[in-house]
Amino acid sequence: MYDEIVAVTENRPLTGGHFLLSLDSPRQAQATRPGQFAMVRVLGRSDVLLRRPMSIYDVKARDSGSRRGHASKPPRIMQFLYKVVGRGTRLMAELKPGDRVGLLAPLGHGFYEEEYMPHAQAADEVLHVAGGIGIAALLLPAKQLAKAGIRQKLFFGGRTKADLVGLDEFKPVVSQIKLATENGSRGHRGYVTQPLQDYLKHHPNKKFLVLACGPWAMLYATVELARKYGHPCLVSMENRMGCGLGVCLGCCIRVDGQGHEAYQRVCTEGPVFWAEKIVWEEETIAKT
Amino acid sequence: MAERTKKRAKSKGAARAVGQTPVSVAGSAANKQRTGFVPQIETEIAGVRCQNPVWTASGTFGYGKEFAHLVDLNQLGAIVVKGISPEPMEGNPSPRIYETESGMLNAIGLQNVGAKRFLTEKLPFLRTLRARCIVNVFAYSTEDYVRCIEILNEGEGIAAYELNISCPNTRCGGMVYGSDAKLTEEVVAAAKKAARFPLIVKLSPNVTDITVFARAAEAAGADALSLVNTFVGMAIDVETQTPRLSNVTGGLSGPAIKPVAVRMVYQAARAVKIPIVGIGGIATAEDALEFLIAGARAVQVGTANFYAPETSLRIVEGIREYCRRKQVHLSDLVGSLKIPQASAS
Q: Does the active-site annotation cover B323?
């Protein structure tokens, strides 16, 4: 983890209040592992204090340009896919190329090859399940799995088609993408867990590894499906964060432990957890 | 003590002047500027000598090691570790924090590893630092405060205890110690009796008159006071019509509370003789200086550590620079607030 002040190279508006933010930070980009996140701070303000946690969507050698000839160069651009949902993201939306932001990265325990690869190799397919902006956490692990020659599918759901952002980068790495929107404007009408359930039901003899990221209620439903059909499942959790580096204990979630191990930090022991580790507290799921 | 300090500072200044490149300063100030004036910013609280007056606040800096690669810990005056209870505590359910305007609410629930594990797992690293190690202690009954201190007394390298009295006394109807003068006296006296190391009492600001509690703690034997702890606050999610925190209420910290904290430090400093450590929304050297001028001998940086870990060190430099510019030592600054005759007190 490094704490740097870095330059914005692009802050591209997408559909539905989403943006793709590109920051120039070679040292942090090169240290990034799939599933890790960053804490982003818009500088010079004391009314909006805390950094905002953002999944590291991608790292690139060059800023959204041609990929030709840059595959061998070390990454220096870090990309973040985010949606404007509150004060912090509203400030981020105003960033322009050349602006400087505070970036604490890379953070957290991500989707680590050494942990998931045995399951991925034993599986027929890896299934990515994304809800809304949760898509941002899954690209880097998908790319890593593709490099290892693992077959993958993506299930991606949002409220409307405007929420289905960040898809293009997945097309070269997964074999199929199944979409869902709550209002039916694209793909299946309803929640993303419906096409997921259909797929699991129709392939009872296949082995899958499930990787999921999205709102807690969606994660809970996904975890229950994976458990029901007997597939290992890794989830990338989110929570409001204070520091992002493990000291404030603000982002803790309930896990299967006792005493002071009853809670673990989404920013440090997470954000990626094996599904069975997490104890889902009903009240909190209902709220989010 | 003051004389010795001044003499030492002078000789330091002289030693630095020899061979030092003269500072060129424009204007008449140059005449006043003694080349190589080195401000003395060491401080001493309850017998704990610190290389500078900037400490990190309990609950905002973990057990120190977490910041080791981001901050040069050896430059800090002291680290006050996360509150320790006799037994480990799991903390509150999520959500535990919520950002507010220029601040944040927290209801972490005092999750910590417990006194025994603190001694074996966290203290060894802290012992290696130049920053002094101060252990924040809390419990829910007077007996448990004493029990916690007795366990921690075994620790080598602890410079002082900071007693967190903003906890409810669960044995006696849940009245918060720090909101009841009698309970404050009871727990401070018991803690002082048991404590091997100097005792700093951290006052709760959720009181009508902070001077009552400052005096109660002093009378019961506190070696120093630190104030303020967080203010009880809450926030509501209007869409779900539910509290933002699982605990319903939480502690408010950050820049929003600074003016109230400064006022309380000012009042407390006039009410007691024991030294005061100022806490509350400090994010810049200027903020820290307000507390020092109001009467604090040291300050703690809290919430700022979450979003700008380098804050403490920047404040050390800022204080040093201010003292250099004003040609004063820290000891000249403490309680140096000047109130014109006509102003109300």
A: no
Please give the average per-residue pLDDT across B327-342, as a whole number. Answer: 94
Share of chain A above pLDDT 90, in %: 90
Contacts of B89 in chain A (CB under 8 A): 259-260
**Single pTM value for the model:** 0.91
On the question of pLDDT at B142 being above 50, the answer is: yes
Q: Which of A241, A245, A260 sits opposite B66 (nearest CB)?
A: A245
The whole-number average pLDDT for the span A3-24 is 98
**Is the CB of B96 less than 8 angstroms away from the CB of A50?**
no
d(CA B52, CA B121): 27
Residues of A in contact with B112 (CB under 8 A): 260
Cβ separation A260–B112 shorter than 8 A: yes
Here the ipTM equals: 0.93
Among A48, A254, A250, A261, which residue's Cα sits nearest to residue B250?
Answer: A250
Q: Is the pLDDT of residue A248 over 50?
A: yes
Query: With contacts defined as CB-CB under 8 Å, which chain A residues touch B69?
Result: 1
Query: What is the DSSP secondary-structure string of chain A?
Result: -EEEEEEEEEEEE-STTEEEEEEE-HHHHHH--TT-EEEEEESS-SSS-S-EEEE--EEESSSSS--TTTTTSPP-EEEEEEE--SHHHHHHHT--TT-EEEEEEEESB---HHHHHHHHHHSSEEEEEEEGGGGGGTHHHHHHHHHTT--EEEEEEESSGGG--S-GGGTTT-SEEEEEETTSSSSEES-THHHHHHHHHH-TT--EEEEEES-HHHHHHHHHHHHHTT--EEEE-----SSSSSSS-TTEEEBS--GGGSEEETTTT-BEEEGGGB---HHHHHH-
Average of pLDDT values for A15-33?
Answer: 98
All domains of chain A in start order, with CATH: 2-107 (2.40.30.10), 113-287 (3.40.50.80)
Nearest CA in chain B to A264: B90
Q: What is the CATH number of domain B47-93+110-243+255-333?
A: 3.20.20.70
8 Å CB contact of A247 and B66: yes
Predicted confidence band at B5 (pLDDT cuts at 50, 70, 90)? very low
Catalytic-role residue among B50, B133, B148, B167: B167
User: Does A239 touch chain B if contact means CB atoms closer than 8 Å?
Assistant: yes
